[in-house]
Amino acid sequence: MNMDKVNQLIEEHDIEIVRVVFNDNANVARARNIPVKFFRDTVAEKGVQYPSAMLSVDTSANFVLAAGEGFAGGYGSWLLKIDPDTFHVIPWAKKSARVIADLYTLEGEPVQVAPRSVLRKVLNELDREGLKSYGAAELEFYIFKQYDQSGYEPTWTGLQCYSEVKQGEVDDILYDITVGLAAVGIHVEAANTEYGPGQFEITMNPQWGVGQADAAFTFKAAIKEMMAQRGLLATFMTKPLTGLSGSGSHFHHSLYDKATGQNVFYNAAAADGLSDVAKHFIAGQLYHAKAISALANPTINSYHRLRPYTFAPSNVTWGLENRMCMIRIPGARGQGTHLENRLPGADMNPYLMMAAMYAAGLDGIRRKLAVPAPVENQDAYALQSAPSLPRNLAEALAALNADDELIPYLGADFVKSYTALKMNELNRFADHVTDWEIREYRELF
Questions:
Q1: How many Å apart are CA 346 and CA 279, to the nearest integer?
Q2: Alpha helix (H) ranges present in 20-163?
Q3: How confident is the model at residue 150 (pLDDT cuts 50, 70, 90)?
Q4: Residue 418 lies in a domain
Q5: Which one-letter DSSP state was computed for residue 102?
Q6: Do residues 91 and 75 make contact, with C-beta atoms less than 8 angstroms apart?
Q7: Could you tell me if 171 and 98 lie in one domain?
Q8: CA 91, 93, 97, 102 torsion: positive or negative?
Q9: What pLDDT was estimated at residue 425?
Q10: Confidence band (pLDDT; 50, 70, 90) for 149?
Q11: In angstroms, how far is the first alpha carbon of the chain from the final one?
Q12: Closest C-alpha among 361, 294, 363, 285 to residue 325
């Protein structure tokens, strides 16, 4: 995609508004709606200003001074500069298109704490090793007819994962999602109900490089908007319902040799079909698992999902075709050899989650970390020797800040800023009296 193609699409579809968007560190999709004339005359080439203060707000939109330079820094402007490759017409919005942007300073330097910049930084390190990445997030989510103080009403009932009858009840939803995503460059490989009332799972086609995260970012925004137009609520909150299935974002990914185009995870001569590079990469993700969790499971709610016997991981393990492990190696080999990391929740920021995954794996390759034996013919959840994953966000953040090997890949300034945002979230939660506490204690004491 280049600007000639962008202008052609604008003409063909009579576009009047272009949304310039990015995913921030609080995992909120931010946008500036630009009239098409100003977009073509100015924004497409020079960018549009964006207040730097907005990268210092947490999920409640509270300003967190420690996440940026604070008031002493003046909170000047940055620039949103578009990536033409991400331009798409939005078929469900009136005469509108959408394009993803990168954040730059007014002096033209990338803002290093912005999520897309963090991922690009890691991908540049892969490039230095002659490697390119290929993958896709496999997202689960809930869609409700109602979700407020009076409760929820799911779009379908029961626990009938893959049920044709249940999917028939919501076929119009699955159809709209599949067709709508295709219109913005995301091709669905499978769409189905999942193991929770109103829960869905959609798998999409893999992408190269930063496109993996762009696709997941677009996927989430598109589904929420399409469902809102139906009067429904789509949520990627990891655990919206007590006692029912959490929503994950299993990350399927692999590495390829830039020069030859060959999958570097495959070794035909190995009994398991995995190369030494693959095993070092797996070892890196295992070694850094607790730190990765801070980015793969970025909210207080995320940690309700990481429980034994839930098909979500609770400890640091890997295995061949084992869905109880944190890392599962699917059966495909040859050019299709890849790993599935089952750690991320659906509430992850795809840029930050993928940056952490690739950084950890690359560290394993560079340091030639040894992989432990895979889980075979054992209950992965019951392994006493396997380290436990963090039980909460505070533990994960502590692990991230103590991980001296991983921090340089992500950037010390980013880790500092991100930690400040998340600690503010934790502190606000600590001050909140929950409904559970009231029900449990008000009549007893």
A1: 26
A2: 36-38, 44-46, 115-128
A3: low
A4: no
A5: E
A6: no
A7: no
A8: negative
A9: 96
A10: low
A11: 65
A12: 285
State the pTM of this model: 0.96
Distance CA 19, CA 364 (A): 39
Report the distance separating Cα 229 and Cα 91, nearest Å. 12
Which residue's structure tokens are 């290093």?
112
Range of the domain at 7: 3-111
In the numeric block, the tokens 């399927």 are attached to 252
CATH code, domain carrying 32: 3.10.20.70
Q: Are residues 38 and 177 in the same domain?
A: no
Given a cut of 90, is residue 223 above it in pLDDT? yes
Residue with tokens 């762009």: 214
Of 62-66, 139-143, 257-261, 330-334, the poorest mean pLDDT is in 62-66
Q: What is the DSSP string of 351-413?
A: HHHHHHHHHHHHHHHHTTPPPPPPP-SS-GGG-TTSPBPPSSHHHHHHHHHH-TTTHHHH-HH
Same-domain pairing of 43 and 139: no
Give CA separation, 401 vs 195, 288, 391, 396, in Å: 35, 11, 16, 9
DSSP 331: S
Kindly compute the dihedral angle of the four CA atoms of residues 41, 42, 47, 51, in this order, to the nearest 10 degrees. Answer: -130
**Nearest CA among 88, 95, 52, 84 for reference residue 71:** 52
Interval 100-117: pLDDT, tens: 999 999 999 999 999 999
Lowest mean pLDDT among 58-62, 111-115, 234-238: 58-62
Interval 87-101: pLDDT, tens: 999 999 999 999 999
- Across the chain, mean pLDDT equals 95
Q: What whole-number distance in Å separates Cα of residue 177 and Cα of residue 175?
A: 5
Tell me how many domains the chain contains.
2
Helices (H) and strands (E) in the chain, counts: 14, 16
**Whether residue 164 sits in one domain with residue 38:** no
Asked if residue 437 belongs to a domain, the reply is: no
Closest CA to 164 of 203, 191, 135, 128: 191
Q: Would you say 274 and 264 are in contact if contact means Cβ atoms under 8 Å apart?
A: no
Model confidence at 75, pLDDT cuts 50, 70, 90, reads confident
Q: Is the model's pLDDT at 191 over the cut of 80? A: yes
**Least confident among 52-56, 170-174, 208-212, 273-277:** 52-56
Q: Are residues 342 and 394 in the same domain?
A: yes
